[in-house]
Design goal:
It contains 6 helices and 19 strands. The protein is of the alpha+beta class. The protein folds into 5 domains: 56 residues, no CATH class; 123 residues, no CATH class; 86 residues, Beta Barrel (Elongation Factor Tu (Ef-tu), domain 3), CATH 2.40.30.170; 55 residues, Beta Barrel (OB fold (Dihydrolipoamide Acetyltransferase, E2P)); 93 residues. 23% of the residues are buried.
């Protein structure tokens, strides 16, 4: 009896608990697990579709390689090679033949104008001077004899004329008078010949004495000895072309660089242009120079025509030496504080379908590329435009600016812009346009859809 009552009392308690928990009530629609799983699946599918469409749009949108427009310096230069030479060098030779007795200087010695450099043996020359002095003395003696003969003939003629006057012309005979006059005239002529002989002998003596002085070879300039090709005891043979004994340089603090400029570049080189060069002895040190003269005469070597150009060099520290090989760069034209763009930007045109905001003309395939980036070329002039006066394709400093077209990237869309092109250094080109500003992005190449930059 007791157990039955306990069972009956437990059943209503369980029912009350279920009623309190609501397990017996029907669930609402938003409490369905299936509904939420379906919504999550739908959102995932929509997100994936949107991502897929965005990827397709990204792949279909063209991608561009750009560089900034910069303000800077553009220099048009001409490269040439040559050698350093003294501004003035003198080859010292000898006008006389003989044997070298003494050499008083050596290489690198400083010499003054008039200083004795080499002495020749003067034994024969001294003997010739003595002989010439004796000839002068002999000529003077002959002149004295001729003078005495003139006096004697004059006196004889005077006596004959006096006798003829006193005798009234009876004595002497006319033949005797003619003989006396002829003797006097011969005496006068002999005297004139003797005087000429004296002058000739004196001239020969002066020549021999000059040769003695020339046996001491002196420096014609103040300078330094560059080379020496004579030793004591050497025989010197005078000929039509004197043998070089010594080479002198006037002033090594001022040198001259002689470079060979190619015929394609000579039109850009003029006197007064700035230049710089390097030598193998100091490869990291650029030396300043300035052009002084461009030769009109050409030099042809292996069918290559060049023109010698002279550059003035300051060598105050004496670090440069004559004969050094130099690689020079001549600045023919220089532009400062100008807008510059890469040369590849002048060759670029967007491909068809790229969404370009063209200002005229249909879109063409891009002229850039990987090789265009690695090997920049000079910008080609438009059709019908003549080349610069120098014919090197680098532009002319004096010619009118050419109109070209570049493409600027604005909000992801390329826009064409007309610019005036100036000079180019082979990497960047001077440009000018009203709407072009530093920092703007100019397009240099277009990548294929989906390609990585």
């Amino acid at each position: 009896m007791t157990e039955k009552q306990s069972t009956n009392s437990a059943a209503p308690a369980a029912q009350d608990l279920q009623t309190l928990l609501g397990d017996g009530l029907a669930r609402r629609w938003w409490q369905s697990i299936t509904l939420w799983l379906a919504l999550l699946a739908l959102v995932a599918v929509a997100g994936g579709w949107w991502y897929w469409q965005a990827g397709k749009r990204a792949q279909a949108t063209p991608r561009y390689v750009t560089q900034e427009v910069q303000r800077g310096q553009v220099r048009l230069t001409v490269a040439a090679n040559g050698t350093l030479q003294p501004t003035r060098s003198v080859n010292i030779g000898s006008e006389l033949s003989g044997t070298v007795r003494r050499v008083l200087v050596d290489v690198n010695d400083q010499v003054k104008k008039g200083q004795v450099l080499v002495e020749l043996d003067t034994t024969k020359l001294d003997a010739q001077v003595l002989r010439s002095r004796a000839a002068v003395a002999s000529a003077q003696a002959q002149l004295a004899q001729a003078t005495a003969t003139v006096k004697e003939a004059r006196a004889a003629l005077a006596r004959l004329e006096e006798v003829a006057r006193l005798s009234g012309g009876k004595v002497p005979s006319a033949a005797e008078l003619d003989t006396g006059r002829a003797a006097y005239d011969r005496a006068v002529a002999n005297e004139a010949a003797a005087r000429a002989s004296v002058q000739d002998a004196r001239a020969a003596l002066a020549t021999d004495e000059t040769n003695v002085t020339k046996a001491s070879i002196r420096s014609p300039i103040d300078g330094v000895v560059l080379s020496r090709a004579v030793e004591p005891g050497n025989a010197v043979a005078a000929s039509l072309q004197a043998v070089t004994l010594l080479t002198l340089a006037e002033d090594l603090t001022r040198l001259r660089l002689e470079v060979s400029v190619d015929e394609a570049d000579v039109g850009s080189v003029r006197p007064g242009q700035a230049a710089s060069f390097t030598v193998s002895a100091y490869p990291s040190r650029p030396y300043p120079a300035r052009t002084t003269r461009v030769a009109f005469g050409s030099t042809k070597t292996d069918n290559v025509v060049t023109y010698i150009t002279y550059l003035e060099v300051d060598n105050a520290d004496l670090s440069l030496r004559p004969g050094m090989t130099a690689a020079a760069t001549i600045t023919s034209t220089e532009r400062n504080d100008v807008l510059t763009v890469p040369n590849t930007a002048l060759r670029f045109k967007p491909a068809a379908g790229g969404g370009a905001a063209a200002e005229g003309g249909g879109a063409k395939a891009s002229g850039g590329g990987i090789m265009g980036q690695l090997m920049p070329r000079m910008p080609r002039p438009p059709s019908g435009q003549r080349r610069g006066a120098n014919g090197d394709g680098k532009g002319s400093a004096n010619g009118g600016a050419a109109q070209r077209q570049i493409w600027v990237l604005e909000d992801g869309v390329p826009r064409a812009m007309s610019v005036k092109v100036g000079i180019s250094d082979g990497r960047v080109t001077e440009v000018e346009s009203e709407g072009l500003q530093p920092g703007m992005q100019v397009i240099t190449d277009q990548l294929a859809a989906g390609a990585r930059p």
